[in-house]
Design goal:
Number of helices: 23
Helix content: over 70%
Largest sheet: 2 strands, antiparallel
Number of strands: 2
Shape: globular
Length: 501
């Protein structure tokens, strides 16, 4: 979540004043903020109307910057709003731009704001966030090859630099605030000098007329005190970037994760100190990071499968001991097990001259970890505090489809082959549950994905009727879901041929 730059204005503008064309830097800022506030009112109810107001706000910030190119407040607001819009799935269809385009614009706007001032912790935090989001999106490879100058590795490094400078400024400001507070506490106060003469006549300040007030309206940036919570936000965001960076190295199969861990080690003490009141967040973030680091080490051939298992077990130990009834912890452990399976699958393709015994050992290991993932997800859905149940049920179905895939070539795992019909039936049940839950929550995307996957599982089990109905109703969406299932390893090319699409 981006950090808001707080403002205060001395008096609310009159409607007549709003209709006049902006002339000053402050008036451009005011009109832009007014449009933003109007967009916020419509965000939940009418996405299209909200986008119109947000677009007008961006236009005002841009026009203001054309006239006042060194205005930090205008540059900050434009950059922040562009990033926030890119993170709103409900608004994206009405913006006529995809997430990649919006993030690229937001990165350029943040860099422009930094060229005006590099001393705003909020701006540095937001810059780290938007760079991380862009790097993660490029790493997913959904939009084809990335353009020159947009290597996700470079973007992650730039994000980490921004977070580091942000944390440095925050620590300095916290120290300065503490020093000032201590100095004030030690100053003696002479009550006689501070006493007020209650008999003295007070002369009130003249109240300006409406027109005078309008002319004198000003905007003032509110510099809020930096808190330990804000510093903790920065460190947690930095760990998130390091975690995503590990995942990038794992997929690329090249690079050295040691410098990433050195970066984590340098910030570890400050992280622990700043997150004492948010220990659970810290614990979850560090476990995610250490699991991703273990995966990167294995994918880059720094250690073998058994060592990878040991690293993963060690990383997850705190969650199993302290947070076995915490939904986020259970889902994080499931994610780590699914990542383990995907990495071992990639490894199996690289192993040459492997015997059937070697392949069977890998099959046993993968089956074990997929079963662990399914167990974690099954435990999560039983907890009363679990949120986003449609997505968890979808992942349960995915686990069954992944276990079924172990029966296909080149793995040919006998247990998966013998259990294929049961696994498909389980997947169908989980997907049906996900669709029902998504329908109740009006989660349209999850409902479509779950309904199509349910039809796919049924079709592979021999019932093609529902799948054909989905194809007839929305063939484009069906193809998109099938492409994703291929990428995720849930289906093989032979399965797609069986579906005849």
């Amino acid at each position: 979540m981006s950090k808001q730059h707080q403002f205060s204005r001395s008096q609310k503008k009159s409607a007549k004043h709003k209709d006049t064309a902006p002339e000053s830097e402050n008036s451009y800022l005011e009109v832009g903020v007014d449009f933003e506030e109007a967009g916020e009112k419509w965000r939940a109810g009418d996405a299209q109307k909200a986008v119109r107001f947000f677009s007008r706000a961006l236009d005002k910030y841009s026009l203001g910057l054309d006239r006042f190119p060194n205005s930090f407040d205008l540059a900050y607001n434009k950059a922040r709003l562009q990033y926030e819009l890119s993170q709103q799935p409900r608004l994206l269809p009405h913006l006529q731009r995809n997430e990649m385009s919006l993030l690229n614009s937001a990165v350029a706007s943040h860099r422009n704001a930094l060229s005006i001032s590099r001393d705003s912790p909020d701006l540095l935090f937001n810059t780290g966030q938007v760079l991380t989001s862009l790097a993660e999106l490029i790493s997913e490879d959904r939009y084809g090859p990335y353009p020159s100058g947009s290597d996700p590795l470079d973007l992650f490094q730039e994000a980490l630099d921004s977070f580091q400078r942000c944390a440095t400024l925050q620590r300095q400001q916290i120290t300065e605030q503490s020093t000032r507070a201590n100095a004030l506490a030690q100053e003696p106060m002479d009550l006689d000098d501070q006493a007020m003469d209650s008999t003295a006549e007070t002369v009130p300040e003249p109240v300006p007329s409406v027109s005078e007030a309008s002319d004198q309206d000003t905007w003032v940036s509110i510099v809020e005190p930096v808190t330990e919570h804000a510093l903790a936000d920065t460190y947690l965001a930095q760990i998130g970037a390091l975690t995503s960076l590990c995942s990038l190295l794992s997929v690329r199969g090249s690079g050295d994760p040691r410098w990433i861990d050195e970066c984590y080690f340098r910030m570890q003490y400050d992280l622990i100190v700043s997150t004492q009141e948010r220990f659970q967040e810290y614990r979850l973030a560090t476990v995610r990071y250490k699991s991703a680091l273990a995966d990167a080490g294995f994918s880059l051939a720094k250690f073998n499968i058994l060592e990878y298992e040991n690293h993963l077990t060690e990383a997850q130990a705190p969650l199993k001991e302290q947070y076995s009834d915490e939904p986020h912890a259970l889902c994080d452990m499931a994610d780590a097990e699914l990542t383990f399976n995907a990495s071992v699958e990639r490894f199996s393709y690289r192993v040459k001259d492997s015997t059937s015994d070697d392949r069977n050992k890998l099959n046993v290991i993968r089956w074990k970890h997929l079963t662990k993932a399914l167990d974690h997800l099954s435990a999560a859905v039983k907890l009363p505090t679990t949120k986003n149940l449609p997505r968890i049920y979808l992942r349960r179905g995915d686990c069954e489809m992944l276990r079924r895939r172990l029966g296909d070539a080149p793995w040919n795992y006998d247990l998966a082959n013998r259990s294929a019909s049961t696994l498909l039936k389980n997947a169908e049940i989980y997907y049906r549950g996900a669709a029902r839950l998504a329908r109740a929550e009006t989660a349209v995307d999850e409902e479509k994905e779950a309904s199509i996957k349910e039809a796919v599982a049924a079709a592979l089990a021999g019932d093609l009727r529902r799948f054909q109905e989905r194809v007839d109703a929305e063939i484009k969406t069906v193809r998109e879901v099938l492409d994703d299932t291929l990428d995720d390893g849930l289906l093989a090319e032979a399965d797609i041929e069986k579906l005849s699409i």
